[in-house]
Design brief:
The complex is a heterodimer. By secondary structure, chain A is an all-beta fold. Chain A is 0% helix and 50% strand. Chain B has no helices and nine strands. The N and C termini of chain B lie far apart (30 Å). Classes of the chains: A mainly beta, B mainly beta.
């Protein structure tokens, strides 16, 4: 059974940093692109970032470009999202999601339960 | 600021059919990028409902179906059940934004 478990969320002050982790199981992590999606309170889903299966290509939404960094560690079988210069508008539940296949046309076939990030003083 | 537009809410009685529209543009749905649909209950992990416009993952009831035409797509739920009450999102890729885009989301209420 595919499982994705996020961790690392919490309360952080504006301008601060946080690193989210996502621990996958039940599939070969190295074979699939991975993505981060967030949902702000009372709002819809918003794609944040993506990384290719090999980790060589990364992609970001304009709202986080230059502040967030996605990465994957195959030795630790973990996906990360380093979030710097956090703003109040980054407050959201962050989900990691697995790409169903390769390429930009693929949907997200498995999701974690999410981890809450709150940016507030 | 979602680039895919959905109605905020739809409702129907048990057993009825409801449809949810997803309107995009020439840089996403109209550019032949596939549309995917997700069901989301607050506090839980979103679930892939339809992939590649009209395909159901294993375990998704055939009451759910998807279609795509031009710059729009739609999700249909037939034989509406109480357990279908949830938020539904369409999703595609946008070449102008060079990233994935979600719809504004639709809340389905079973009367």
């Amino acid at each position: 059974e595919v499982q994705l478990v996020e961790s690392g969320g919490g309360l952080v002050q504006p301008g601060g940093s946080l690193r989210l982790s996502c621990a996958p199981s039940g599939f070969n992590f190295n074979d699939y692109a991975m993505r981060w999606v967030r949902q702000a309170p009372g709002k819809g889903l918003e794609w944040v970032s993506g990384v290719s299966a090999g980790g060589f290509s990364t992609y970001y939404a304009e709202s986080v470009k230059g502040r967030f960094t996605i990465s994957r560690d195959t030795s630790k079988n973990t996906l990360y999202l380093q979030m710097n210069s956090l703003r109040a508008e980054d407050t959201a539940v962050y989900f990691c999601a697995k790409s169903r296949g390769g390429g930009r046309n693929s949907g997200f076939d498995h999701w974690g339960q999410g981890t809450l990030v709150t940016v507030s003083s | 600021q979602s680039v895919l537009t959905q109605p905020p809410s739809v409702s129907g009685a048990p057993g009825q059919r409801v449809t949810i529209s997803c309107t995009g543009s020439s840089s996403n749905i109209g550019a032949t990028y596939d549309v995917h649909w997700y069901q989301h209950l607050p506090g839980t992990a979103p679930k892939l409902l339809i992939y590649d416009n009209n395909n159901r993952p294993s375990g998704v009831p055939d009451r759910f179906s998807g279609s795509k035409s031009g710059t729009s797509a739609s999700l249909a739920i037939t034989g509406l059940q109480a357990e279908d009450e949830a938020d539904y999102y369409c999703q595609s890729y946008d070449s102008s934004l060079s990233g994935y885009v979600f719809g504004t989301g639709t809340k389905v209420t079973v009367l």
